[in-house]
Every structure is written in C-alpha cells, then in structure tokens.
C-alpha cells in the first residue's frame, strides 16, 4: 500500500468492492495462505495492494479482516437457513417461506432478516471460501468447512468413504474467548459441540458422496482444467457447482463448446 495516502471507507455492500475482495481472498486461500478460520496475516497487505490497483482505494489490513469476518457471518447465517431442509429456491437463491415460518425463525435468529427480501450476494464464491468445495491439495477437499483427506478425484464418485479419510473441523474465530476460571467447562462444552458438528458434517458428506449420479467429478474436472487454472475464482465456482447437483455436471459435459461452458460458469456467480 502506498504511504501517506488517505484510507478509504470499506463498503462491503458495494458489489464491485465486494466482488474484487472475495476474488482476492479466494486466490490467497488457495495458495495455502489459510490460517484457522481466516487468512494468514501476510495475506492482507497483498490483498490491500491489489485492491488499490483495481479500485484506486486504500484499505488497512484491519478493514480487510473485518470484511472477511462480516462476510463469514453472513454466510453462516445463510447456510443455517438452507439447512432447515426446505423452502430454498435455487433459481432466485431466496427463501420461499410462508409468513408464519419467517416470524418464528426471526424470533430465534433475528439477523436472518437480511435475507427476507434478497439473496446472499456472491453466494457461490462465499460457499467456496467458507463452506463449499475448496481444493486444499491434490488429495484434500473441504465440504462445508470439513477437510476430507485422502480423497482422490477418481474416488469422489464412490459410494463409500476411503479408509484413510480423516476429518478436521476448523474453529470459528468469532467465538468469545473464555477467562481462566471458565476454561475447563468451556473446553468440555466445545469438545461436545465439535463432536456433534463433526458427526453432522460426516453424515452430510456421506449423503453427498452416495448421491453422486450422472457424469463423474473427474470427468467434469478434466474439462475445467483445460479452461481455467486454480488462480481464477471461477475455477472454484465451477467445482462447487459440480458437487452441488448432478444436473450441473450433466449440463457442463453436454455443452457444445467451451465458450458456452465459460458463459455458464459466469452466470452462476451472478
């Protein structure tokens, strides 16, 4: 970042600022600059430098970290809503809930009101960044924040989990820190909570793997790697789509040209 310049106000509602920021975060995350529930400290100055080039605006690392936390909270609220099991419209990316359901849900989760009239912006990219499918190495994939190790691309179509699969659940850095006298009880609570969450995620992964029908992930990835590299955020938007629905994989494989495939990926991020 340039010295002696005025710091700009961060506006993560602005579609252009938000989009550039998320794309840069995806690039850093997939160059192995993740750290726990966020990015490594060294990633923020690089993102700030790139944003200055793209937007001619200067941001501090703290502003960018706050932006990450804000979008992570948004994603977690939205994701919890999708886990209710019904009422989510994949076309409009909104929730078709009756008024009574909204009223009951908002009483318990008032912050969900932000999605009453509009969808989560950049939902595909945020899924890839915080909870979707994110490549973390040739044999590691993340499903909903859970790292599945030892899964080759060719094995993701299998109806059973590989024997060497291990699960690692990342901590939510937004949880409040406990004082020393509360630490022991907190550890027990967190351990129990993590165990339940891990089992939940494991069941979810199993369901995803068992329901892979149509073209295989490997087949789709072969075409994708011909068109894009992992540095491009669209790469992860496409991967997330492949894991989400077999219809997406069928569309991808059956398209007549690569130009149409690229246009289709672009449409998913809108």
TrEMBL record:
Transmembrane segments: none annotated. Pfam families: Myb_DNA-bind_3. Residues 154-168 have a biased composition (Polar residues). Residues 154-199 are annotated as: Disordered. Residues 17-105 form the Myb/SANT-like domain. This is Myb/SANT-like domain-containing protein.
């Amino acid at each position: 970042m340039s010295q002696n310049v005025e710091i700009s106000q961060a506006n993560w509602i602005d579609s252009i600022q938000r989009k550039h920021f998320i794309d840069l975060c995806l690039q850093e995350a997939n160059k192995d600059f993740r750290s726990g529930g966020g990015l490594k400290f060294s990633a923020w100055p690089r993102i700030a430098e790139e944003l200055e080039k793209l937007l001619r605006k200067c941001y501090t690392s703290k502003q960018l970290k706050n932006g990450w936390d804000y979008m992570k909270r948004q994603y977690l609220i939205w994701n919890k809503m999708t886990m209710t099991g019904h009422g989510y419209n994949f076309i409009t990316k909104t929730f078709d809930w009756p008024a009574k359901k909204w009223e009951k849900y908002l009483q318990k989760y008032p912050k969900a009101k932000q999605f009453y009239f509009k969808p989560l912006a950049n939902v595909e990219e945020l899924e890839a960044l915080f909870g979707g499918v994110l490549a973390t190495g040739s044999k590691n994939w993340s499903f909903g924040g859970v790292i599945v190790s030892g899964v080759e691309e060719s094995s993701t179509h299998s109806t059973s989990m590989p024997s060497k699969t291990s699960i690692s659940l990342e901590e939510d850095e937004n949880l409040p820190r406990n004082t020393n006298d509360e630490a022991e009880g907190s550890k027990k609570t967190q351990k129990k909570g993590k165990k339940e969450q891990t089992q939940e995620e494991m069941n979810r992964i199993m369901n995803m793997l068992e329901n892979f029908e149509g073209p295989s992930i490997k087949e789709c990835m072969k075409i994708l790697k011909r068109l894009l590299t992992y540095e491009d955020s669209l790469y992860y938007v496409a991967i997330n789509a492949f894991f989400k629905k077999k219809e997406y994989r069928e569309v991808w494989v059956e398209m007549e040209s690569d130009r149409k495939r690229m246009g289709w990926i672009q449409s998913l991020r809108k």
